[in-house]
Design a protein that fits this description.
- The protein is α/β, with parallel strands linked by helices.
- The protein has 14 helices and 14 strands.
- The strands form 3 sheets. It has a 7-stranded mixed β-sheet with strand order 4-10-9-8-7-5-6, sandwiched between helices.
- Helix 13 packs antiparallel against helix 14.
- The longest helix has 20 residues.
- The relative contact order is 0.16.
- Bound molecules: pyridoxal-5'-phosphate.
């Protein structure tokens, strides 16, 4: 028992912090969007969300909203109420064909990014995607919760290992000792940093290493036309030994999860045996309309303009603060604060000043490494970033000065 997950332990260790965060009113916030992008909470307090996943500000884009509305009217239904393996809306096939063309590989949609990992990881573990050879699976220690949840299931199909974060020697060592190895990681990590994709590609070339990346925080925000960090590092081509899952609900500005795989992977096997892919829920018709509208934006000059605005905001934030992954050009920043109590006080002060930012602590980040997670966006003004940094720097500065 508890060889790969220990939810009871994690819950017991973190519960008091969640309770404290709740007491301070930093979770359970109910909001309405205002016309100017601000949020209004249940106490009529207006604030800017500094932890939005909408890195390019596409979530409220008029074309995407219009695409969603028009699609549901055209489809005459919110969803098809039968497994897609049996009967599938033409709109779903058309959307996946457009995504496949855009990413130049096989693209499948699924209800969420977590459902994409739930569909794909057990199949990968079984050997069904690798000519019936079950690979040894290495999970990066910092891989997302939705990936870690699948460890016990994968372990029932093959041998699995947990690797220290981004430890290439660990991976290479196991490549030398095993016939086939798969490495599972986030492309861009939700608490900052990224996978060493180029080095992993070297191991792929040398040992035939299978690579599985969660690009939830990267698709659209990075790369030419928003192909994402991993595909960009790979020169835009997804090879037959690499799998990507992503969220279409974050920078992409639509809804659902995405699976990207090489055209040679048997799509029918994935659809028939990929659990949530073939059950009753999938991206609904407004979601499909939103995806198509967002794809058009991805193929227009607007995407690069938004990416540039994002980069400018990241650089401006970095010029005002100090964080471990400074200069990596990624939108997620983790501002370390020396204690959980102070982290919460900083988050509370920011909220009172009109900014929401998540306090993070164990088990989301390692014990003793608490801090604030900040997610930068293209549609934040420099004035807002400066005001926000002035508030949080009060807490990080006093830490440095030993106050
Ligand atoms: C890295 C990563 N992967 C997967 C998910 C889950 O995404 P979804 O909500 O689309 O299932 C998240 C959640 O935000 C995430 O941060």
């Amino acid at each position: 028992m508890n060889k790969f997950t220990n939810i009871k332990k994690a819950k017991n260790m973190s519960q008091s912090f969640w309770q404290e965060t709740n007491r301070l009113g930093l979770i359970g916030i109910e909001v309405n969007y205002q016309d100017d992008g601000m949020m209004l909470d249940q106490n009529q307090h207006e604030f800017i969300n500094m932890c939005s996943y909408s890195y390019l500000g596409l979530d409220g884009h008029p074309d995407i909203i219009k695409g969603a509305v028009e699609a549901i009217i055209k489809a005459k239904t919110l969803n098809s109420t039968i497994s897609r393996v049996r009967v599938c809306l033409e709109m779903l096939s058309d959307t996946e064909a457009a995504l496949s063309k855009f990413y130049q590989c096989e693209a499948l949609t699924v209800s969420t990014c977590a459902a994409a990992s739930c569909a794909l990881l057990p199949l990968l573990a079984s050997g069904a995607l690798t000519k019936e050879v079950a690979p040894l699976m290495i999970f990066d220690k910092h891989a997302h919760f939705s990936i870690n949840l699948m460890k016990p299931i994968c372990a029932d199909e093959t041998d699995i290992e947990s690797a220290p974060h981004n430890d290439l020697n660990f991976v290479e060592d196991l490549c030398k000792k095993n016939k086939l190895v798969a490495y599972v990681a986030d492309g861009v990590y939700s608490t900052g940093g990224h996978a060493p994709v180029k080095d992993l590609m070297y191991l792929q070339d040398k040992y035939g290493l299978i690579l599985y990346f969660d690009e939830a925080h990267s698709i659209s925000a990075y790369g030419k036309n928003g192909i994402g960090f991993v595909l960009d590092e790979m020169g835009g081509n997804l090879n037959e030994k690499t799998f990507i899952v992503a969220s279409l609900n974050k920078a992409f500005g639509a809804s659902g999860g995405l699976i990207l795989m090489h055209k040679t992977i048997d799509k029918d096997i994935v659809l028939r045996y990929g659990g949530p892919l073939s059950w009753s829920q999938r991206v609904n018709t407004p979601g499909l309309g939103a995806i198509m509208a967002s794809l058009k934006i991805h193929q227009s000059p607007e995407l690069a303009i938004r990416q540039k605005q994002l980069t400018n905001n990241i650089q401006y934030f970095d010029s005002l603060t100090s964080s471990p992954y400074k200069d990596d050009k990624l939108a997620i920043r983790f501002v370390g604060i020396d204690s959980e109590e102070k982290t919460m006080a900083a988050s509370k002060a920011a909220y009172e000043a009109g900014f929401y930012t998540s306090p993070l602590f164990f088990p989301i980040v390692p014990r003793g490494k608490s801090g604030l997670r900040v997610m930068l966006r293209s549609d934040l003004s420099e004035k807002a970033i400066k005001r926000f940094c002035d508030v949080i720097n009060r807490f990080t500065k006093s830490e440095k000065e030993g106050k």
